[in-house]
């Protein structure tokens, strides 16, 4: 069977993400090579066999693989129909080089929650305009990866922080249209990004990116009822484009912006 290849790659506007790469290969085998970034890999179909530091590893479906920078590895299909994979390449701002040794020792992490989070991260990275969601999800993924590599056996205690949660809500309320990056919010509020996300979610039962999108949809509803066109509404309420507005509007309201506008009395 001739090798079939399907690939897509892009660089999202998310701090710390060097590249996102999705691929489906039936026969292609990677030779030994290195990256200057961390390789965070999940396989959706099939499996990959690879050598890292002269030891063979594999990627069953419940595994998240984390390959460190500057360490040679290869890769080839471990199943007859090849493999379908999703990769995020991360720079050292997300994972420090002090973790390379631990990643060489245990590159394959069997953690269903981590794998679920990485999958949701990819979904957010594929949607222009959802950078705050992607950054929030990446922050929690990075935290769990570091816990694995440092072999933490204790369960971290996340204490409520209603004051910090309120300050973040006030920041989001003041930037409904312009938005704010998680990295910037953490700097302004002098808090770790992961603690910021957990404090807000614990206080309000909703993630910061969900709160921001809810506020934007609320503004969009009022403008649509005034008779303004969806494309115009998207531009003045902080959405990337009309398709971005439509996706979130339908998720929260149940109908498209155009249909909602026509329903006005």
UniProtKB/TrEMBL annotation:
**Pfam families per the record?**
AraC_binding, HTH_18
Asked if the record carries the keyword Transcription, the reply is: yes
One GO MF term: DNA-binding transcription factor activity
Q: Which UniProt keywords apply?
A: DNA-binding, Transcription, Transcription regulation
Question: Which residues, if any, are the signal sequence?
Answer: none
- Highest taxon in the source lineage: Bacteria
Q: Which PANTHER family match?
A: HTH-TYPE TRANSCRIPTIONAL ACTIVATOR RHAS-RELATED (PTHR46796), TRANSCRIPTIONAL REGULATORY PROTEIN (PTHR46796:SF2)
Under which name does UniProt file this protein? AraC family transcriptional regulator
